[in-house]
Specification:
four-stranded antiparallel sheet; 4 helices; Topoisomerase I, Chain A, domain 4; 6 strands; alpha+beta; single chain; Ribosome_recyc_fac; 2 domains; two-stranded antiparallel sheet; protein biosynthesis
Length: 185
């Protein structure tokens, strides 16, 4: 019974960490990544479709993304979607593909992106704390229903806190690594 709570808590906290790492991929660091356009949706025959499903997205060098549509008539739609995505650069349509040229980041931009990363890290910590609260409530309910003793309840609450501390440490380590990557010139 308690093992199930521990496993579920640990699994949910791991998912929070994975979600944070996925969010980090959308942040720009020293070189551009195709993940910067991961959330861009293109109007494909009336349906909002992810950009990588209507064309190939490649990072041709450290500061350029190139999007080549599989259907040439989508060039204007892709260009419009990229402008609306507000990525901080203007798309360049050369008739074959759309290119995004990212200038080197200033130190202010790096600090701003690091601040965004910190915000993402805080959101992940809040999610982990909410998961801990749910687990603690389940344990307290078991004790109240006399399914476990008071001693078992205290041990279980301590175990949930250990799982939480581990998850928070992993989040802080991931955040620190991402901040270093962003701020590195």
């Amino acid at each position: 019974m308690l093992d199930g709570i521990y496993k579920q808590t640990s699994a949910q906290m791991h998912k929070s960490l994975q979600a944070l790492l996925k969010d980090f991929t959308t942040l720009r660091s020293g070189k551009v990544s195709i993940n910067l356009v991961e959330n861009v949706r293109v109007d494909y025959y009336g349906t909002p479709t992810p950009l990588n499903q209507v064309g190939s997205v490649i990072a041709s060098d450290a500061s350029t993304l190139s999007i080549t549509p599989w259907e040439k008539n989508l060039l204007k739609d892709i260009e419009r979607a990229l402008q609306e995505a507000n990525l901080g650069v203007n798309p360049n349509n050369d008739g074959e593909s759309v290119k995004l040229f990212f200038p080197p980041m200033t130190s202010e931009q790096r600090k701003e992106i690091a601040k965004d990363a910190k915000g993402m890290g805080e959101k992940a910590k809040v999610a982990v704390r909410n998961i801990r609260q749910d687990a603690n409530n389940q344990i307290k309910k078991l004790e109240k229903d006399k399914e476990i003793s008071e001693d078992q309840s205290k041990k279980a609450l301590a175990e949930v806190q250990k799982i939480t501390d581990t998850a928070i440490k992993k989040i802080e380590d991931a955040l620190k690594a991402k901040e270093e990557e962003i701020l590195k010139l």
